[in-house]
Amino acid sequence: MVSEFTVFGSCTCRDIFNSTINKNYKDYFHINPSGIRVSYISLMHPPVDYTEESLIIHPETKKNINFSNWIKQDLDKSFLNELKKNKSEYLIIDTYYDVNFGIIEFENKNYITNNLHIDKTEFYKNLNYKKVMTIQSNKNEYLKLWKENCNLFFNFLEKYCPDTKIILNPTRHVTNLIRADGTISEMGIYKKISEKYNPYRDLLDSHIIENFNVDVLYFDENTLASENSIWGASSLHYNTSYFMDVTKQLNEFIKRNKILDNANEKRLNNLFKKQNRNLLTFKIQLNNNEKINKIVHKFKQNNTYKNLLKNNNEITNNITELKDILTSNEYAFLNSINNSKLSQIKQLKLK
After folding, report:
1. The whole model's pTM is what?
2. Which of 54, 89, 114, 177 supports an S-S bond with 102, CB 3.0-4.6 Å?
3. Judgement on whether residues 130 and 203 belong to the same structural domain of the protein
């Protein structure tokens, strides 16, 4: 039986459900209508009136018609109704549009997404008191506004889609491109793009991870962009191996949730909740010695060596018992961080 998904995000999410790119996805997943080229800020504000003629982008090529339709979806805020209607099992989200596109503020504190080519429409030209705002140009004001509307979005999900499980896809602009002949090149322009946008994705993603109950896909920073992408070479158009890995991860999430939804698995549910602190650390990818040292230091302040060792052994046993419901990346991380703790705990005895 396939699982139902909805996407609220960029091509790195949507292409998981594109059979030209990810050939066998229909064996596992069904995709419902998705939210495309819409920012959190725009989505949580009222619909905006327009005429069809005012959104025409000339010349009326197929590409420009698509741009007009995406702008229309943003102005209608129609994605919220799609979410209520479909109530998918899973919603995959990312923060690409809020970082890369920004928003347009206009009269009476209304907001819409600063979509590509919207400035070529009569609608845009007729807006009063308009101001383009990005996180790069006005970090504090933008971040405050974004957090408020992100929180409203999750409140909406809790109210209208309480059974939908949320998965954050923390993709980033990559710097290396695999060419058609198999050679790999570091792209200077990709590096500049990464430096401009990726740090802000970290900020927004961390807010979601730290404040809401989401699963998080693991993103390998060594992921390659592909010259053979059907969309053309870009720092966000990945090699097919990325989509194979994401498919595996999604199936691991599905397997875990089926086990945890079983009423007879209360013990596993409790054990899994106990690991939430370490999993949160994994989710925001803070697997470095400084953070591990801080975690161990807190244990040191309140525990004897004997208690520390007992605690560590208990966690090790819990991790082993949870192996069937942890993703392969989570399992590897928890073992890694626990082994690091054990090593430092043993050093305490030698001092």
Report:
1. 0.85
2. 114
3. yes
